[in-house]
Amino acid sequence: MKKFVWGLAIPLLLFFSCVQDDDFTIPDTVDPDPSAGVQVQDFMWKAMNFWYFWQPDVENLSDTKFPNTSEGSEAYTNFLAAHPEPGSFFDNQLLFTEDRFSFYSDDYVTLTQSLSGITKSNGLMFGLVRIADSNNIFGYVEYVVPNSDASTKDIKRGDLFNAVNGTVLTDTNYSSLLFSDSDTYTLNMAAIENGEIVSTDQEISLTKEVGLQENPIYLNEVIEINGIKVGYLIYNGFTDEYDEQLNDTFGRFKNDGITELILDLRYNSGGSVNTAILLSSMIYGTNTDEVFLKARYNDKYQKVLEDSGTDLRRYFAKETKKGSAVNTLNLNKVYILTTSSSASASELVINGLTPYVDVVQIGETTRGKNEFSTTLVDDRDNNYLYSPERTGKIKSSNKWAIQPLLGRNENADGFSDFTNGLAPDIALDEDIRNLGILGDVNEPLLARALNEITGSTAKMSFEVQFPAKKITDSKMFTPLKDNMYVLDPPVVW
Q1: Strands lying side by side in the sheet with 217-225
Q2: Cβ atoms 79, 372 nearer than 8 A
Q3: CA 318 centroid distance within chain
Q4: Residue 276 belongs to what H/E stretch?
Q5: Rounded to 5 degrees, what are φ and ψ at 279?
Q6: C-alpha–C-alpha distance, residues 150 and 187, integer Å
Q7: How far is C-alpha 36 from the geometric centre of its chain's CA atoms?
Q8: If you write DSSP's letter for every residue of 218-260 in order, what string do you get?
Q9: Strand partners, 136
Q10: What is the DSSP string of 348-371?
């Protein structure tokens, strides 16, 4: 089941670029219509037949499966009617077996509101780890969002918990305990003793707040070490609302004369492709003749686009969406910190920079999310593409939306095959017993990058005693999870 269940704890907001327009307003609520019938399945099938990356590989989406899909076509209508629940129809009849990321929503307003930051969160970001040889789970805090409810409580990076509301976490109940509709829950804290997770007496109660937005620029600073000025940026989401602030950060790096950059994408699960291009331009350069990526759609649509002469390449950028000149460092080397939570647009930056820059990846293998998507709704005159300016054109009796994978982004060398993730040049797991303080030069992954920059021969211990091998994390229960979004995919009418 790939439905997103609304009302979850949502600490990070990543936006599809087009919903950020200042003049965009949306109604507070639109009630889903559960009796919409096969028109929902009809919308799903036709949108997927046109856009879905794996359309040629799904028998039910074949162009020859239903030569006639007009209203009244008996074979087509019977096929739709045989699957009366739209979510099950989407999951079981339309998805390719290798698709790990496409999903749906029964309320496009709720989905687009979440893309605009209208949601609830208590601000606690955490990973979940299975206890060896058991079904039990424990969580560890990765960071706390500033100005959130969690930021006012006695909880911090590195703290552990193993129960919620007194119930021990397991692989079958953690979702309902941590990500339910309830606004408040109590964490039962834990500690490591003799190599085992044990309960403590501490309890932390957290409450979700409406409208909490996380600034993805969690930390930016200049570190001077051995006469070298190093820029350090913890960037936790490709959120285009903060593009100007991101550009200002690189302006400060440039003015401060940094010669090395450490980009920390450990907890960045993705977001806007446009923002990924801007960030890469800030690192490497603003030559708009140099290809950053080339999009590849399904075979049928790819041919249509190529035959029409559509340029599917995206180039490095010299301006932000608001017209500000991109502040670029013109670097030929960058150090990027990653974990298994680094996904989609984070991987796009690594892959897109690789033909031009010596990318030194430190940490863990990334997630392996190399496809992009967009929001599709029942707006047939706009080829099902969601547009905030066209909400009045969406069929009023069908509130469903789908977020299917449209294609893959290749880098300038034509490489996009990283389904198993991008492996680090220097492997180093985060250590739950020694997560350190983010931004502290002794924090293990930052220290390892600084060690590489300075070429220090001093003995530093990077032995990991308790590796953070996550089964999932809190960002995977946000509406956008680890998706990568495109702005206005090309349409040939």
Answers
A1: 217-225, 228-235, 260-264, 333-338, 358-363, 426-427
A2: no
A3: 25
A4: helix 273-283
A5: -60, -45
A6: 11
A7: 31
A8: EEEEEEEETTEEEEEEEE--B-GGGHHHHHHHHHHHHHTT--E
A9: 170
A10: HHHHHHTTTSEEEEEES------E
* Cα distance between residue 238 and residue 7, in whole Å: 22
Q: Which helix (H) or strand (E) holds 44?
A: helix 38-51
Q: What is the pLDDT of residues 356-394, one digit of tens each?
A: 999 999 999 999 999 999 899 999 999 999 998 999 999
| 271 and 341 Cβ atoms separated by less than 8 Å | no
- Comparing CA positions, the residue from 479, 423, 419, 489 lying closest to residue 100 is 419
Nearest residue to 313 via CA among 407, 419, 409? 409
pLDDT tens digits, one per residue of 218-244: 999 999 999 999 999 999 999 888 999
Domains belonging to the chain, first-starting first, are: 17-117+373-407+479-485 (no CATH), 123-210 (2.30.42.10), 217-370+409-464 (3.90.226.10)
Place of tokens 């035959």: 307
- In order, the DSSP letters of 131-163 are PTTSSBEEEEEEEE-TTSSGGGSS--TT-EEEE
Q: Which amino acid is at 270?
A: G
Residue 121: its H or E element: strand 120-121
Q: How far is CA 137 from CA 162, 167, 168, 192, 416, in A?
A: 7, 11, 8, 14, 34
Distances (CA, A) of 122 to 146, 392, 431: 10, 33, 25
Q: List, in sequence order, the alpha helices (H) in 59-193.
A: 74-81, 86-89, 108-115, 174-178
Report residue 466 as tokens.
């308790």
In tens, the pLDDT along 18-69 reads 322 332 222 333 344 444 469 999 999 999 999 999 999 999 999 999 989 9
